[in-house]
Structure formats: C-alpha cells, structure tokens
Write a structure and sequence with these properties.
Helix content: 55-70%
Strand content: under 5%
Largest sheet: none
Order of helices and strands: HHHHHHHHHHHH
Number of helices: 12
CATH architecture of the largest domain: Orthogonal Bundle
Distance between the termini: 15 Å
Oligomer: single chain
CATH superfamily of the largest domain: Hypothetical protein, domain 2
CATH topology of the largest domain: Endonuclease III, domain 1
Shape: elongated
Structural class: mainly alpha
Number of domains: 2
Length: 213
C-alpha cells in the first residue's frame, strides 16, 4: 500500500465511522476554549471538564481573569496537573489578551504562541477548533497513531515533523477533523500499551497490524 493509498483508506474509514469529530473539551467561547486547552496539557479532558464549569462561572471573560490573582485561580484548578504553573500562565495570558488584543483570542500562530503557557500544540488546537483553520495539533495520541498506521515514518521523530507530514498528505478541508479522528482513535482504540487491534476498523490500512500479523 502506498502512502497515498493509506491516507485515502484512513479518510474513507473515518468519513463513514466518525463523520462528526470534535473536541471533548467543554467550552462556550474562544477564551474558554483557550483556557481549557491550556489546562489539558498532560491532563485528561475528563479532568479538565470537571474543573472548568466553576472556573468559567467565576471568570467568564479575559477581563475577569485578568483582574484575579494567581492564588484565586489556583483554588479552582488544584486537581489538574501542574496547577501552580497553569494558574500563573492563565492569569498572565488573560492580562495579555486584555492589554494586547482587546480581550479577544488572536487567530495566528505567532500571536498565540507569544502568550504565556501557549505552545504550538495549544495554538494549533485553538486555530483549528475556534477558527476552522487547517491546523494539525500533534499530541501523544496523534503522534502514536500516525506512526502505527504508517501515515508517517520513523524519520518523523518530532511532533513538528509529524505535523508537517500529516498536513502535507491530508487534504486541507479534512485536516481539522483528521486531528480529532486521530486523537479519538488513540484515546479509545489505538491505546498506548494495548492497542485494540481486533476491534479496529483500520486493520486493512494499518502498517503496525499488518507487520505483526
């Protein structure tokens, strides 16, 4: 199977099996999406969704969070990973959103990654989910699944290298959904320690499955 054929097979499968693919983070505004994605770093979406309702009620806008102290925000997010640094980044980011961007979440990679605690992966998620841009955020699930399926090769050893390859081969219109396809597949089927290969509908297109068969 060629690289092009594998991508076509993967797209065809997910178009049928998962026509609607969205983030599992709960949010109602661009600002709350940014906050949720920042909190989700090295933390499960499930855990983030437990803490954000109260956090969002207390801080519905960048202006509200910008006026808070790190200690006040920390009280709402203690149960997530690295709460101290995340509280610091959230408050600092809110203040920059107010001071530099008129209280709005920016739409470019350069502007988003200039915010405290916002790396390329977080920025790509926001640009894709909030603004519909063809961006591929590469987390551990996307990295693992794309290698196992054979969408990328062993030469692509960094998240940026994987992102570059995926964006090259997935059609632009598909990229935002493909990001979620790979995440959700990695979260529930192609899991890290024990991939559920016998339950997977991508056996025919999977380099990992066909190599070990």
């Amino acid at each position: 199977m060629t690289r092009k054929q594998r991508y076509e097979a993967v797209i065809a499968y997910f178009e049928e099996a998962m026509p609607v693919a969205e983030t599992e983070l709960h949010y109602t505004t661009d600002f709350h999406l940014l906050v949720a994605v920042m909190l989700s770093a090295q933390c499960t979406d499930k855990r983030v969704n437990l803490v954000t309702p109260a956090l969002f009620e207390a801080y519905p806008s960048p202006e509200a969070m910008a006026a808070a102290s790190e200690e006040e925000v920390l009280e709402y997010i203690r149960s997530v990973s690295y709460p101290n640094s995340k509280a610091r980044h959230l408050v600092a980011t809110a203040r920059q959103l107010v001071g530099r961007f008129g209280g709005k979440v920016p739409e470019t990679l350069e502007e988003l990654t200039s915010l405290p605690g916002v790396g390329r992966k977080t920025a790509n998620v926001v640009m894709s989910v909030a603004f519909g841009q063809a961006r591929m955020a590469v987390d551990t699930h996307v990295f693992r699944v794309s290698h196992r399926l054979g969408l990328v090769t062993e030469k692509e050893r960094t998240p940026l290298a994987v992102e570059t390859e995926l964006v090259k081969y997935f059609p632009e219109a598909v990229v935002p959904r493909a990001h979620h396809w790979l995440i959700l597949h990695g979260r529930y089927v192609c899991t890290a320690l024990r991939p559920h290969c016998l339950e997977c509908g991508l056996q025919h297109a999977c380099a990992y499955f066909n190599k070990k068969s």
